[in-house]
Every structure is written in C-alpha cells, then in structure tokens.
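User: Could you go from structure to sequence for me? I need the amino acid at each position, not a summary. Structure tokens:
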C-alpha cells in the first residue's frame, strides 16, 4: 500500500524565497515571487531550523501574502526562507485517522505515530454536486430524547445547534458524539473543536475516550490560545477526513463542529489582518459563501454508500438569533435545535426548547420503515399539545392557575411531564428510540383522549389505554 505522512516535505519545490518584506499579525509578505497561486501551501523555515506551514491568501504581481498556521511569533524577516508547494494544502486520508486525537492542524497530540493515508486530498474540498446528490434518508439516533423524538437528525442532513454563552452546548455536542449511531450500519464521528479552553479540551477527551478507543472517532481540537489561522483550517480538515470515511469506506459519518461562532470570529480577524472591507458587524462580506462551502460538503452521493451529516454548534452573542453567524447558518441548513436559558434555569438537561426547534428533513428519516410507525404522529401531537400548554401557562400568569379550567390544568401537567419524563435526562444517559417514544406516550396519557386529535384511533386503541407491555 502506498502511504504518505502528514504534510510531506517532498511536495515542496526546491526554489526558496528569502525576500520577506513584512510581518502583519498572522500574515507574512514575500516579495519577488513568480508562479505562485491563491490557496497554495507554503513551507516556512526559520533561522533556528524550525519549520512552519502556511497558505497563500493573496498574490499581487511579485508579492505573495502567506498566512502562517502556527503563528508568526519568533519569525525574523532577515533569516526566513519560504518554499511553495505548487498545490493547495493537502492531507493524507485513510482509515489511519480513526481513533486519533489531533490539534486543529491535524497533527497528532495523542503521543502516537504520524498519520498515514492511502492518498492525499485537498482540505479545501468541494460542495457536493446537486445532480449527484441522493436525498437524505434514514435517521441518526443520538440517544438524546429531546432530539430523537422531536427533531430527528437524518443521515446527510446539516442541522445546527443554537445556544448562548453559559448553556451546556458543548456537553450536549460531546454527548451526541459519544452516543450517536446509525442503526447498526458502519458509523464514525469526527469531532472538530474550535476555540476550546484547556479545561473543555480535557473534558471532551475524557467523555469521548471510549469511542476513540473503539476506533470510531476522529478528534481535532483547536484551543483558544492556538493561532486563529489554525481555527479556520480545523473544520476543513474534519470534513476532508469525513468525506473519505463516508464515500470511500462506506461509513455513515457525523461531523460535530463546536463552535462555529469561534470559527467565524477567527475568519473576521484574518480578514481584518488582510485589510479587507468589512461587512455586517465587521465580518467579511463573503461570510455566507464561506459557511456554505463548509455546510454543503455534507450529504449522500447517488450510488455511493455512506453519508456525511453535519451538526454545527453556534453560540449566539447576547442570544441574538439575527446575529450574522446564526442568521446566515439558518439560510443554509435544514432546521435548528435551540437551547433555552429558561429550560436550563428549571434544571432540565439538555435545555432544548422544543417549540423553537425544527428538523425540516425529519419526515425523510423517521416513521414507518425507518424508526417506529407511531414516531411522526407522536412528535406532531407532542408539539401541538406543548403549544396549547404554553397558551394555558400564559393565561395562568394573568388569572392564576386556580381560575383555569380542568383541561387547561391538564395541559400544564402535561407540559411538566414532558419536561421531566421525556426531555430531562442524565448527561451520560443513552436512551433507545423505543424508550424515548414510550416516555412520550406516558406524558400523552395525562391528557384526555379527545384532546389527542393528531393521533389516529387505531394507534390510540393500541397505546393510549394502558402502558406499553414491558414498561
């Protein structure tokens, strides 16, 4: 087998450039270059012998602007040599990534050997050709009832998780990465952490240790004190690895990217260093197309086994869902899972707000032949009844709960049952879909049968009158 190590030096040309004109933040400007193109990878050798890597951001006649992945600290223009590879940044891809823990540049930090692959692939990648796409189908079961019951993730879908600072979005993303499965089909998880604290990094590694040891997980962890340029690269490496696992090894791959707001802020910082004209809230004007270039790499290819499903995590500054990052993400993706500070304050984990959450492709991956025959009907009834319960709660705030009708009080009791029996679960608890839906039925039995208008009578005859056998 022909294998190649990560970032092999042999791909770089022999011609060296030593005329380094300027250092500007993470950027290095090289003069008197020729034949250099955008996105070309570069090898930078310092006077001390240390080697760093970079990408060409811009070329203007004989000037090349290179962003240094490891940062420019310690670089002196007078004794720095630059070589260009003649190609965009490539990494080796292959099964050797499974079970490995790497930094945001894809370099192992687990004490193991360098990662080898069967071939090299460009990290920039390409969105899937729409004419070759297969519609998303079949579920990804996360083991989290709030997601599986009401906002089912479908293989090949891009479904973001919206949160605010202080909520346990990273814990939920890690739990999903640890528990998710594809119904017995070959399954892998690629976890791309961006801008994490060292404490968060340690918690993620501990929580995912078992899945990593089983050879089902790839971890790319970029910390807050790593260079911001590395943060821009991390999700691209993650998706490149995922594409190989999915479309060449036939695995269903879930890519968890946390936190895309940290990614966007890194993109803004690099854009400012380049002197680009800013757009809304100082983000670059191409933020929409940049996010789309990541999200649209997920999906399924007709005639090819495997799929890439993307779960990006976004923290909304000040809870503002109109902030550019969640706003633009909403235009590209297919729904959202929203975390609520109110649910969190009530002691519910995960604090998912069910009426604000939506999976637009849920009907493609749930229901008869895919999950359970009653799944879609139960989800629709739970959502409709929660909406009615919210109306009853608003009325209770005006007139007091004692003044409510018996039906309204039953809806308040139903809401409490859904929160405590269905939505609330331990942070290390993985529930089967059958257990999740059975818990939903337990809550629905608290309502009069005549109120369950979205459930067909045969289904009510089979499940409403008494608990399901075995529970």
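Assistant: Here is the amino acid at each position, in order:
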């Amino acid at each position: 087998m022909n294998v190649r190590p990560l970032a092999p030096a042999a791909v770089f040309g022999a011609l060296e450039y030593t005329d380094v004109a300027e250092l500007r933040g993470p950027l290095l400007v090289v003069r008197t270059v020729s034949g250099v193109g955008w996105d070309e990878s570069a090898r930078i050798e310092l006077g001390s012998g240390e080697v760093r890597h970079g990408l060409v951001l811009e070329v203007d006649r004989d000037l090349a602007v290179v962003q240094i992945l490891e940062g420019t600290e310690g670089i002196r223009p007078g004794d720095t040599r630059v070589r260009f590879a003649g190609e965009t940044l490539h990494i080796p891809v292959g099964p050797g990534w499974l079970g490995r823990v790497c930094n945001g540049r894809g370099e192992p930090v687990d004490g193991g050997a360098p990662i080898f692959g069967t071939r090299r692939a460009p990290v920039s990648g390409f969105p899937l050709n729409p004419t070759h796409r297969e519609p998303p189908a079949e579920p990804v079961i996360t083991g989290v009832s709030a997601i599986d019951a009401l906002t089912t993730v479908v293989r090949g879908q891009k479904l973001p998780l919206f949160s605010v600072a202080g909520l346990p979005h990273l814990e939920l993303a890690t739990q999903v990465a640890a528990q998710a499965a594809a119904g017995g089909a070959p399954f892998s998880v690629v976890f791309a952490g961006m801008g994490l604290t060292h404490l968060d990094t340690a918690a993620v590694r501990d929580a995912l240790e078992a899945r990593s040891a089983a050879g089902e997980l790839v971890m790319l962890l970029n910390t807050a004190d790593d260079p911001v340029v590395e943060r821009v690269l991390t999700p691209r490496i993650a998706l490149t690895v995922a594409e190989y696992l999915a479309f060449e090894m036939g695995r269903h791959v879930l890519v968890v990217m946390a936190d895309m707001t940290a990614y966007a802020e890194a993109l803004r910082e690099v854009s400012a260093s380049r002197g680009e004209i800013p757009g809304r809230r100082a983000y670059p004007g191409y933020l929409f197309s940049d996010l789309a270039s990541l999200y649209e790499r997920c999906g399924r290819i007709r005639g090819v086994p495997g799929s890439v499903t993307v779960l990006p995590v976004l923290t909304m500054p000040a809870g503002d869902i109109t902030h550019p990052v969640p706003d633009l993400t909403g235009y590209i993706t297919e729904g959202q899972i929203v975390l609520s500070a109110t649910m969190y304050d009530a002691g519910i984990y995960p604090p998912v707000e069910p009426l604000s959450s939506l999976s637009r492709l849920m009907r493609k991956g749930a229901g008869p032949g895919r999950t359970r025959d009653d799944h879609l009907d139960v989800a629709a009834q739970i959502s409709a009844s929660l909406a009615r319960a919210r109306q009853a709660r608003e009325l209770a705030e005006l007139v007091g709960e004692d003044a409510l009708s018996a039906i309204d009080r039953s809806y308040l009791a139903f809401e409490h049952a859904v929160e405590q029996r269905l939505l609330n679960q331990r942070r290390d608890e993985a529930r089967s879909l059958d257990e999740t839906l059975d818990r939903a039925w337990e809550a629905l039995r608290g309502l009069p049968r005549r109120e369950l208008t979205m459930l067909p009578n045969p289904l009510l005859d089979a499940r409403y009158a008494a608990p399901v056998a075995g529970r």
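One structural detail worth keeping in mind: The first helix runs from residue 145 to 150.
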